[in-house]
Design a protein that fits this description.
7-stranded mixed sheet; mainly beta; single chain; about 120 residues; 4-stranded antiparallel sheet; 11 strands
Length: about 120
């Protein structure tokens, strides 16, 4: 199993930045991809960004391209989501999740961290 703990959320103003962290523990050598997702009240959970654990390749949702950057520190078993130019519509609970294969689903999830952006 892989355990995930997110941190770094908070209440900020529009235009501000936050760095979210996702610390992994357990069978971390089985991680293939780490993704960030978000969910706001009344909405479906949506994909934000993902990073390949070993190769470092990334992809982003169109809504965050150019504003968010995902990165990893394998030595610390941690993935970061650097957010910038935050907008009120970025308000959500942000979750990180792990896939253990190229064609598998995200099977391990953290508890989430709240990001609130005021206008």
């Amino acid at each position: 199993q892989v355990q995930l703990v997110e941190s770094g959320g908070g209440l900020v103003q529009a235009g501000d930045s936050l760095r979210l962290s996702c610390a992994a523990s357990g069978r971390t050598w089985t991680i293939y991809v780490v993704g960030w997702f978000r969910q706001s009240p009344g909405k479906e959970r949506e994909f934000v960004a993902a990073i390949n654990w070993s190769g470092g390749g990334t992809n982003y949702a169109d809504s965050v391209k150019g504003r968010f950057t995902i990165s990893r520190d394998n030595a610390k078993n941690t993935v970061y989501l650097q957010t910038s130019s935050l907008k009120p519509e970025d308000t959500a609970v942000y979750f990180c999740a792990v896939r253990r294969g190229m064609y598998t689903s995200y099977e391990y999830w953290g508890q989430g961290t709240q990001v609130t952006v005021s206008s």
